[in-house]
Every structure is written in C-alpha cells, then in structure tokens.
Amino acid sequence: MLHWDIGGPEGTWGVRQGEWKAWGEKNVVELYNLKDDPSEKNNIASKHPAKAKELTQLHAEWKLEMLKSANGGKLPKTAAPADEDKTKLTKEERAKRKADRAQ
C-alpha cells in the first residue's frame, strides 16, 4: 500500500492499494480502478462507496500513525486527521478511534 499526504490548505492526500487508488482534497474523494482506467478518467467513488470509504479510513489511520511517530509515539492533543470528518463512522468506529487517541 502506498500513501501520500501533501497537506497544505487543500489537504490533498492519496492512497493506492492494488488496482485501487483514492485521492482526496477538502470534502472531495475520488476513486479509480487503475486496472480498468489507468488514465484516471472516470471517478467511480459513487459506484463503489464502500471501497472509497475503506481507502479514506486507511489513509486517516496511516496519518494518525505518522503523527504519533513524529511525536514520540503519542498523538499530539491538537492533532485530528482532516479526513475524519469526510468518513461517516459507526458509533463503534468512533469509540475505537477515541480510545486509540487516548493511548
């Protein structure tokens, strides 16, 4: 899996998992199947919302791990992934994230 995060005011990020690639900016998430669409001409996020959510969540978790790593293994109290508000989480997922941050 490959992640990138440009940050800045747009908060541009991306993740590649196998033939799938997602990228986001502000409140937009796009999804592409690179096997079927190597030129990334057809955003298929609306056709595969579960995959778009999965990759968005994987990126948010990766970003948290990078923040922890840069802060001696602890998450800075002011840190919150920009992608979190774009992903609708279940009550259990929110509780797990909260518990993970408290560690």
What do these coordinates show?
- By secondary structure, the chain is of the alpha+beta class.
- Strand 2 and strand 3 form a beta hairpin.
- The chain has one domain: Arylsulfatase, C-terminal domain.
- A 4-stranded antiparallel β-sheet has the order 1-2-3-4, with helices on one face.
- It has helices spanning 49-70, 91-102; strands spanning 2-7, 12-17, 20-25, 28-33.
- It is globular and about 40 Å long.
Computed Rg: 14 Å
Please, how many domains? 1
Helix content: 25-40%
Main sheet characteristics:
4 strands, antiparallel
Question: What keywords describe this structure?
Answer:
103 residues, alpha+beta, 4-stranded antiparallel sheet
Structural topology:
Blueprint lengths: L1 E6 L4 E6 L2 E6 L2 E6 L15 H22 L20 H12 L1
Antiparallel strand pairs: 1-2, 2-3, 3-4
